[in-house]
Amino acid sequence: MLLDTNVLLDAALGRRPHVDAAVELLNLIALGTGRAFVAWHAIATLYYVASRSHGDDDTRSFIMELMRFVSVAPTSTEAVRYAASLPMADFEDAMQVAAARACGAEYIVTRNLSDFERSPIPAVTPQEALARLR
In 3D, which of 123, 121, 100 has the Cα closest to residue 112? Predict the structure, then answer.
């Protein structure tokens, strides 16, 4: 699975009502129940947004803990070309799809399913991902 940026931000920022599912999902992954990836650019966005309210040290600590059990999907020039070729309205979402493809993810975990309607890789909610892992 590839974790979309919004799921990471829900966990890092404690965003209600989404935090519980995001944290539970990360906890299951940390316990080795599933293998998860994130896109390289998602980490930059996570840092930029979270550090504004939680500060540099706390945000870096969150990222370092996350990297203990989540891998960064491989990235390449070809992945960017692939993202640009996708018929998706939001290029950042297309980059998520390219990252999912690069790491062989079966699905993308996101709260914004409608953003991935034209994705060749299916998207599921955090609750659906939890059900798959249990």
Answer: 123
Buried b (16+ CB within 10 A) or exposed e, 47-58: bebbbeebeeee
What is the Cα–Cα distance from 86 to 53, expressed in whole angstroms? 34
The helix or strand, by DSSP H or E, that contains position 38, with its residue range, turns out to be strand 36-38
Q: Which CATH superfamily is domain 2-133 in?
A: 5'-nuclease (3.40.50.1010)
Taking the C-alpha atoms of residue 72 and residue 19, their distance in angstroms, rounded to an integer, is 22
| The two three-digit tokens of residue 67, written as one number | 């990297």
pTM above 0.90? yes
Domain range annotation of the chain: 2-133
Report how far residue 130's alpha carbon sits from residue 128's, in angstroms, rounded to the nearest whole number: 5
- In tens digits, the chain (134 residues) has pLDDT values of 999 999 999 999 999 999 999 999 999 999 999 999 999 999 999 999 999 999 999 999 999 999 999 999 999 999 999 999 999 999 999 999 999 999 999 999 999 999 999 999 999 999 999 999 98
Contact criterion met (CB below 8 Å) for 84 and 49: no
